[in-house]
Write a structure and sequence with these properties.
The complex is a heterodimer. Chain A has one domain. In chain A, helix 1 runs antiparallel to helix 2, helix 2 runs parallel beside helix 4 and helix 3 runs antiparallel to helix 4. Helices cover 58% and strands 0% of the residues of chain A. Chain A is mostly helical. Chain B is an all-alpha fold. Classes of the chains: A mainly alpha, B mainly alpha. Chains A and B meet through helix 2 and helix 4 of A and helix 3 of B.
Chain lengths: 156, 84
């Protein structure tokens, strides 16, 4: 069943979705400097999915794509954890190396440097990808399942 | 009395009132939205107690996602609370 809410609700949802996603991405990539991180940013991005589903209905078929996105995030997280196996698992092998996210941390009181986390921002990005995809999948399956009362009819 | 304690007391009274409203409402959508308001007040309390990380998680999960899932579930059943 495809139901839609009124034109006012759909327009406000269109306007608000982009700032919500940008705020979620901000929380994810500043996870090692400010409050927030992968889980919080992913949950904020998934709330934009909730807004779209409430405004437009559970359109399309997204079960396989969201599920594979979640699996990709989790697999890349585990791979990145095992890349530092020469020392320990979750070893921060990129810190202070000068490569990507490998800048040195400034001394003293400063607003923080986005470039200085090592593998921590990469892990935040992957956790955010996984949490956003998983919570969006939960929301989408709940909306799809409440459209048709028979749960057996839910096909991706 | 410091101004922080007045704000804390107001937020805690609002928390108890919204939590009682969840039980008292017979309309289930009103109860779900009241639960979202309770989560939002709890998030504000977390922020004032200097736990902004928990406040962001509570606001995103408790106020947005849980309310949306409750509304999806209520839409598949009856809106009024009843005994059948």
């Amino acid at each position: 069943m495809n139901w839609k809410m009124s034109r006012v609700v759909r327009t406000v949802a269109d306007v608000m979705v982009v700032p919500i996603i940008i705020f979620g991405v901000y929380l994810i990539i500043h996870g090692h400097l400010t409050p927030g991180g992968g889980f919080q940013g992913g949950a904020v991005i998934a709330s934009s999915t909730a807004l779209l589903i409430i405004a437009y209905g559970s359109f399309g078929k997204h079960k396989d794509s969201l599920s594979s996105l979640e699996s990709t995030g989790l697999t890349l997280f585990i791979l990145l954890a095992f890349l530092g196996i020469g020392y320990t698992v979750f070893y921060n092998f990129l810190a202070s190396g000068g490569a990507v996210f490998g800048g040195s941390v400034h001394y003293g009181i400063n607003p923080g440097r986005l470039d200085s986390g090592g593998t921590v921002p990469l892990m935040n990005i992957m956790v955010g990808l996984e949490v956003a995809a998983a919570l969006s999948l939960i929301l989408w399956m709940m909306a799809k399942g409440s459209d048709s009362m028979d749960v057996e009819e839910v096909k991706g | 009395m410091p101004v922080y304690e007045i704000i804390f007391t107001l937020i805690l009274v609002g928390l108890v009132m919204t939590a009682l409203a969840v039980v008292w409402f017979k309309d289930l959508i009103s109860a779900a939205i009241s639960l979202g308001a309770c989560s939002l007040l709890l998030s504000l309390q977390f922020y004032l107690l200097r736990a902004p990380d928990v406040a962001i998680a509570e606001a995103a999960v408790g106020a947005a996602l849980t309310t949306a899932i409750f509304i999806f579930a209520i839409r598949a059943t009856d809106r009024e609370e009843g005994y059948s």
